[in-house]
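re: ur question from yesterday

yeah so i grabbed the chain u mentioned. its 113 aa long if i counted rite. heres the sequnce exactly as i have it in my notes:
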Amino acid sequence: MSTPSSFAQLPGPPYYAVIFSSHRTLGDDGYGKMAEQMIELASLQPGFLGCESARDAEGFGITVSYWSSTEAIAAWKSNVDHLVAQDRGRRGWYEHYQVRVARVERAYGKPAT
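ran it thru and got these structure tokens back, copy pasting raw so excuse formatting
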């Protein structure tokens, strides 16, 4: 499992990316704990490959989770505990959010030294 501040260790493409961009409301109100729980829970889901996440001081953040298939993404979206987190996010944690799903066809980069 990757931690929110590290690069995900992924297989070669193709695979899928769920890109969750958001702007947080002020205050934590349990957000940090729930975010950690969701990463732990997602990592146990069949088809989960990893995730990467960053948030700036003004509350804008992006989390990208990687999945082996669209079926795995759909199963995660409908996970009962994840549904609770989604509802809390809509009701209080996010001023605005956007979800995008993409198929990764190519991936390359500079390895860490």
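noticed a couple things. Confidence is low (pLDDT under 50) at residues 1-5. also The radius of gyration is 14 Å.
anyway ttyl
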